[in-house]
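Why does residue order matter? Because the sequence determines the fold. Keep that principle in mind as you read this record.
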Amino acid sequence: MSRIVCVVLAETHTWVIATKPQATARRTTIADVAREAGVNKGTVSRALRGIPGVGATTRERIIETADRLDFSASHLATALASGQSRTVGIVLPTLRSWYFSEFASGASEILSPEGFRVELINLDVDSDFLEVDSPQFRKLFRELGAGRGRDALLFAGTISTERTEESADSARVPVSAQGSPLTSVPGIFVDNRAGGRMIAEHLLALGHRDIGMFDGRMAGKHDYHVWDQRADGFRDTVREAGFDLDSRNVVQPGDCHAADGERAMKQLLRSGRTVPTAIFCHTDELAFGAMAALRAAGLRCPDDVSIAAFDDHPMSRWWGLTTVSQHAHEQGVRAAQAMINALGSNGHDGDAVKPEPEELRVELIVRGTTGPGPNNGLISSSV
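Structure:
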């Protein structure tokens, strides 16, 4: 039976999910699959190897049958048993996100020297949310893994879960997938709430009291917990200091990209109210757009308005942006290491690296877009 390892990268956690081989009385053969699917053995072989000449409906029926019968084509079984297949599919919701590109780059830096061939699988979906225990995810896991000659799948996407005092071990979560039991192993925890708190503490220490926030949540999308955690960590810290956010200065432009940040800043500037002396943007891209709008309005950052954000986008260094780094590249590195460990624990690679138990913590990086707040805590908009 083939062993598929699935590593799920989350913006709050990375779950490393490894299948356990099931004992069977007799190994399923290609003849069994052919008989069950109603085709000949040659058709089964071509379908599972991706060779042209098999209709789409027939191919899907054969793959479904092979998965249901726990069949591994002989060349794949031999490769897996000998450790020579060495192919990993990195599944990305979209190629248009810097975050997933950084993750894939970090994972590849670990996998390639270890002799793995890396495939990038682009889902091209309008969301980075992956609900691991959903039927859709189980179907995706089965379709991408069955008969494709891959040792492992790394899924990069947001999972809306966070560790609590009641669940201190929430970095280990049992997950089930259709066809075989999956068990979790230690993963990566990225604390969005702590990042929001760090930004608030930094701005408060600079003397800012009138502070705004550009909220990156997107209507109708499921990954709202990430934004909740960033916002709550920030807002709670401001309140603990004896202040609060003016709800009129909390803007939700509808998405988390540069154009949305520009739109949010223009909305504030056109409101006729005083502009906050500092603004926390949920993403660096929101901050890029916000700073562009300030510049177009003749305002300076941080002299007129301080801007801080969350992500540590590769361009944030060149913008001089104060931000919280969630170590996207390092997340890919850790996910790849965890995958190799999971393969090793299943007997695939006896020389696998030992697990890395330490957390990947968020980090405040102070650059030039934040500065001291004015004495009176307010500036007047000239727009």
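The chain has a mean pLDDT of 75.
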